[in-house]
Amino acid sequence: MTTSTLIKNTETHTNDNDIQVEEGTLGKLVMARLKPNQDLTESVEALCRQYGMQTAIVRGAIGSLIDAHLEYATPTGSREMEINGPGVEILNVFGEIGFNGGKPHAHPLQGVVADVEGKIFAGRFVRGANLSFITIEITLQEWIPKQAQQVLHA
Q1: 17, 47, 63, 65: least surrounded by Cβ within 10 Å?
Q2: CA-based end-to-end distance of the chain
Q3: What number of CA atoms fall less than 13 Å from residue 31's CA on the CB side?
Q4: Under a CB-based contact definition with an 8 Å cutoff, are residues 139 and 59 in contact?
């Protein structure tokens, strides 16, 4: 297994035998309702900023999107797909929201959705392209990492 490992919070190393271990504590728990026409990713990032969370984990989400725009990896690069609605159901959302130097992570949220015919799709939610249809209820948990990180060699 290849993983990127952060050592002393400055260098990134890749080694087949390194495993990143991060210790920390859970902080605030935020349960929110996104109203119609709010983007999923942008709204979650705004909630984190509003409640002073530098890093948060999505604990769960339910609701629907007008249309879904998901990105997925292929051997030749990433591709984007559009799942037409209205009324694309969110089956699962997971990911970690975080900010490096004030900028959000590139692809913080992944998930699984179902179209109006019940077909299932999965991928990364494209920022700015996944507007809530009626509402989305989402639960976020703050993650507060300890400063020192430890690298274990497998």
Answers
A1: 17
A2: 10
A3: 2
A4: yes
Q: Is 45 helix (H, G, I), strand (E, B) or coil?
A: helix
Q: For the whole model, what pTM was predicted?
A: 0.80
Helix %, strand %, coil % of the chain (to 5): 5, 65, 30
More confident: 7 or 78: 78
Contacts of 81 (CB under 8 A, 6+ apart): 69, 70, 71, 72, 121, 123
| Neighbouring C-beta atoms of residue 94, cutoff 10 Å | 14
Identify the residue with better confidence: 67 or 104: 67
Nearby residues of 68 by Cβ (< 8 Å), 6 or more positions away: 82, 83, 85, 88, 113, 115, 121, 125, 130
Quote the tokens at residue 139. Answer: 């639960």
Find out whether 95 and 109 touch, Cβ atoms under 8 Å. Answer: yes
Say how many residues make up the chain: 154
* Alpha carbons 78 and 144: distance in angstroms, whole number: 31
Tokens of 34: 């996104």
